[in-house]
């Protein structure tokens, strides 16, 4: 059986990559390519809606898909846990599925999982994310998701230490984690998670170098999952067995106080 896919935001950069994957993927075909300004009535007749629009439009796309009984895969940034909570009852009441993927890069998901696994061992955690100057929202959805995973991993030990966050230059707090956003030319997507303790620090860095190559494997996984999903699914990490981050051994311990995929790069550095 072929799944007919309508892509909202299919004329944009991410939408174009998703469109290419759908056209090449067995069992899927394009039902329509909509811009962020298109009438959402054009979704009618699709078996799956993929949202790659803008943060301002995205919630209307999700609601329109749910109202029509169509599953939706959301690749648009700006969906925090609080925002997802607004549509979760609608998804459950309709008996449909909504899959939210802050980042389709498997390397990025691994970087976030590594940061969450390390978070209980360090009292201080901060995130610095950089994207091209055309990215509308900040912090990025990936940074928000990483901060939420870090907070969950530290549930037993408490929030991270983040002094002087009343000062605007200290970034925006997300789940107690300070996040700093850079928007500049010459970069596609980069995230650093810096974990610090007495006498040492650990930096986990992920760079997206070539988006089409980096995102395609994750898009294929997400399409397959979204086709038959029920309820709300969040993150590519929910679709793959990373092997870390499901249960953190340090969850019952205090933080220490004394002494791939083509097109992307993931590394850890200690200082």
What does this structure look like?
Helix content is 30%, strand content 27%. α4 packs parallel to α5. It has a 6-stranded parallel β-sheet with strand order 2-1-3-4-5-11, with helices on both faces. Strands 7-8-6-9-10-12 form a 6-stranded mixed β-sheet. The chain has 2 domains: 128 residues, 3-Layer(aba) Sandwich (Rossmann fold); 122 residues, Dihydrodipicolinate Reductase, domain 2 (2-Layer Sandwich), CATH 3.30.360.10. The protein is of the alpha/beta class and 271 residues long. About 7% of the residues have low confidence.
- How would you write the strand order of the largest sheet? 2-1-3-4-5-11
Based on CA atoms alone, the radius of gyration comes out at 19 Å
> Which fold name corresponds to the CATH topology of the largest domain?
Rossmann fold
What spatial form do the alpha-carbon principal axes imply? Answer: globular
Number of domains: 2
Strand content: 25-35%
How is the biggest beta sheet arranged? Answer: 6 strands, parallel
Q: Write the CATH architecture name of the largest domain.
A: 3-Layer(aba) Sandwich
**SSE topology string:** EHEEHEHEHEHEEEEHEE
The CATH superfamily label of the largest domain reads NAD(P)-binding Rossmann-like Domain
Secondary-structure-based class equals alpha/beta
| Termini gap | 53 Å
Our count of helices gives 6
CATH class of the largest domain: Alpha Beta
Number of DSSP-assigned strands = 12
Average residue pLDDT: 91
Helix content: 25-40%
Note poorly predicted spans: 245-262
């Amino acid at each position: 059986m072929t799944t007919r896919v309508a892509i909202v935001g299919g004329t944009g950069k991410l939408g174009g990559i998703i469109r290419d994957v759908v056209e090449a993927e067995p069992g899927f075909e394009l039902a329509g390519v909509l811009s962020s300004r298109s009438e959402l009535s054009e979704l009618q007749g699709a078996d799956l809606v993929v949202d790659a629009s803008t943060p301002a439009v995205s919630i209307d796309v999700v609601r329109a898909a749910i109202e029509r009984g169509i599953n939706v895969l959301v690749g648009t940034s700006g969906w925090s846990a609080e925002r997802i909570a607004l549509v979760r009852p609608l998804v459950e009441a309709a008996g449909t599925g909504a899959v939210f993927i802050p980042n389709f890069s498997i390397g990025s998901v691994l970087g976030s999982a590594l940061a969450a696994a390390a978070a209980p061992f360090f009292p201080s955690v901060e995130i610095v994310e950089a994207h091209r100057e055309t990215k509308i929202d900040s912090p990025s959805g990936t940074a928000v998701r990483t901060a939420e995973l870090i907070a969950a991993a530290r549930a037993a030990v408490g929030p991270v230490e983040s002094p002087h966050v009343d000062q605007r230059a200290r970034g925006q707090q997300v789940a107690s984690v300070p996040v700093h956003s850079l928007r500049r030319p010459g970069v596609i997507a980069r995230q650093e998670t810096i974990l610090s303790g007495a006498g040492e620090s650990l930096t986990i860095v992920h760079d997206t170098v070539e988006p089409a190559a980096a995102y395609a494997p994750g898009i294929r996984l997400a399409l397959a999952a979204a086709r038959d999903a029920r309820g709300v699914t969040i993150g590519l990490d929910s679709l793959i067995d990373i092997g870390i981050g499901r249960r953190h051994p340090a969850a019952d311990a205090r933080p220490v106080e004394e002494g791939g995929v083509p097109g992307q790069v993931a590394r850890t550095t200690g200082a």
